[in-house]
Design a protein that fits this description.
Length: about 575
């Protein structure tokens, strides 16, 4: 490879790294089927002034999806998995909310994102330290789709996690073990791993950085733990170890050995399987479609396949142009940086002998506009309003709320106001108007507002809260969990007895299991389900024991019977 080309590439990379204010990046370039550049630029750790090297480990985020799709393709090639067999034939307990998707969804559908289910990313993002992958996947049946099955392409991390679990199941081992056996070990990717702890303990690992607001200096943030959705985005690797992978995606030999993946395996990965929406802001070229774990685009007359990755503090790009036997890997330690999109374009222009274009200026302007726009939107959502005022005392909202998939959200008293806790997230609840609030939380080092609305029933009791956790569907509704801690045996026993309203009688008792039941006028005993304080529901109707000792029901107010006589 000519020295002037390599020098040009180094100049381009370092110029753009500085322009995009990225602390450090590692770049791998394959040209004419050979490794032309495999180097680090800038700093992997600003505080310790440590340089990026070709060995520096970075999370590659969603670029992991290509590995997962390749593993599935290998298993299809070996005959233990079929593209057209429904997932339920392999995993009988698999369920989606859409019954058609439940019965017909295949691993092919999952890998090309055509299930009808939008992202629902908050489900795994905030639960990543609390749940198992199997528990997360069991919740798919409770997630609302927003499109019909196979109707359109919609990116989904959860179903990539499911595809990885399926691959491990048919391979007779865990997903991680199958990946290592079929792909990573044969390619000599010995330091590549799925573990944040393993990466952090390595002597050459990148530190994650984010910019909390436009124009602010970058700050260090914790690594994101992605074990729950490992098949969708948990790989950590280096450009040194991704070099044989890039050659493999090109269908080329590695170290003189035959290509690891035959054309029958590579072909379905690189062929467009689902149409992509037109006009994506972050498209590198002109969208053609989505293959299996790869975006397929036309780049100035050349067919390019690639996949990017974004996760807390890191951005990545892994892609190739097979016909030209060239490819680029770009890993950097800043979140949401479009340097990962600009650099491949600049490098391909140079490798393909194309007229240079101002890709750096274009992508930086786009990144700046997106960051500023988000700040403006967040500022609007966090603005408070004193008119209209809250419709009830703030203490009425305090309690626990639950969704069958998203889990539990807790509203807490916090000084003169409220706070919200949702799994690993805790933040203040700022009132906006009426029963609308904003839950302000830290997402990956960036203060993020989540709109929240409370709901009440006809009797004025707060019954639910809805939170905008997935933009593609209606706000996720969490139903209020009954308060029961105060309902001790002593309290419940004191509520038992006979209550009368003239000749009408209501009887309250406890079942053998200790639960409170009531027979009001006629029929049989019905369970009294706690709501709050001494308010209960009986077959959906509100029943309340008052401080005066009466029993309020939809039929009227019953008074306790005394000395065997009717109460007045």
């Amino acid at each position: 490879m000519a020295n002037d080309l390599v020098d040009d590439l180094r100049d381009i990379i370092e110029r753009e790294r500085v322009r995009f204010e990225v602390p450090g990046c590692a770049v791998l370039v394959v040209a004419d089927g050979r490794i032309a550049l495999c180097e680090g630029f800038g700093r992997r750790d600003l505080a310790r002034d440590l340089p990026v090297t070709p060995r520096t480990l970075f999370p590659i985020g969603s670029s992991t999806k290509t590995f997962t799709a390749a593993l599935c393709a290998v298993l299809v090639h070996e005959g233990v998995l079929a593209w057209d067999r429904p997932v339920r034939e392999y995993l009988p307990d698999f369920r989606m909310r859409d019954p058609v998707a439940t019965e017909q969804l295949t691993v092919f559908d999952m890998l090309c994102h055509r299930s009808g289910l939008p992202r629902h990313d908050m489900l795994w993002y905030v639960a990543r330290d609390e749940s198992t992958r199997a528990e997360i996947l069991a919740k798919l049946r409770h997630l609302e789709p927003n499109r019909g099955f196979r109707q359109t392409w919609q990116y989904n991390n959860l179903l990539y996690a499911a595809a990885g679990e399926l691959a491990g199941h048919v391979a007779g081992m865990s997903y991680e073990q199958a990946m290592r056996r079929h792909l990573m070990d044969p390619l000599g990717m010995t330091r590549t791993n799925f573990s944040v702890d393993e990466t952090r303990s390595d002597d050459d690992a990148a530190t994650p950085y984010v910019s909390p607001r436009p124009g602010a200096p970058v700050v260090e943030v914790p690594y994101a733990r992605l074990g729950l959705i490992a098949p969708a985005g948990a790989l950590n690797s280096s450009v040194e170890e991704l070099a044989p992978w890039l050659l493999t995606l090109l269908g080329l030999p590695v170290d003189g050995r035959p290509p690891l993946l035959p054309e029958s395996v590579l072909s379905p990965l690189r062929a467009p399987a689902a149409p992509l929406p037109e006009g994506s802001l972050l498209s590198i070229g002109s969208p053609v479609g989505y293959g299996l774990g790869l975006f397929v685009e036309d780049y100035r007359g050349h067919r390019m396949v690639h996949h990017g990755g974004n996760i807390d503090g890191f951005s990545a790009h892994v892609g190739v142009i097979p016909e030209a036997a060239c490819g680029v890997v770009m890993l950097c330690n800043r979140d949401g940086s479009t340097l990962r999109d600009a650099l491949p374009c600049l490098i391909y222009d140079r490798l393909l002998g194309l007229e240079p274009r101002p890709h750096g200026e274009r992508f930086l302007a786009l990144e700046t506009a997106l960051r500023q726009g988000r700040t403006q939107s967040d500022r609007r959502m966090t603005s408070t309003s004193r008119d209209p005022a809250p419709v009830r005392p703030l203490r009425d909202y305090v309690g626990r709320y639950r969704h069958p998939a998203y889990g539990e959200l807790t509203v807490l008293a916090a000084g003169d106001g409220l706070a919200g806790r949702y799994r690993s997230l805790t933040g203040r609840l700022d009132h906006r108007h009426l029963e609308v609030f904003t839950l302000v939380v830290d997402l990956g080092g960036v203060e993020t507002p989540l709109p929240v609305q409370f709901f009440h029933d006809f009797d004025g009791d707060v019954t639910a809260v809805a939170v905008e956790l997935e933009a593609a569907v209606a706000p996720i509704r969490f139903e209020r969990v009954p308060e029961t801690a105060h309902l001790t045996d002593e309290v419940l026993d004191a509520l038992c007895g006979t209550y009368r309203l003239g000749p009408l009688t209501a009887t309250v008792a406890r079942r053998a299991d200790g639960r409170l039941v009531a027979l009001i006028v006629q029929g049989g005993f019905r369970e009294l389900e706690p709501v709050r304080d001494l308010v209960f529901r009986c077959d959906g109707a509100r029943v309340e024991f008052t401080e005066e000792g009466t029993l309020r029901t939809p039929m009227g107010e019953f008074h306790p019977a005394r000395d065997g006589s009717d109460a007045a």
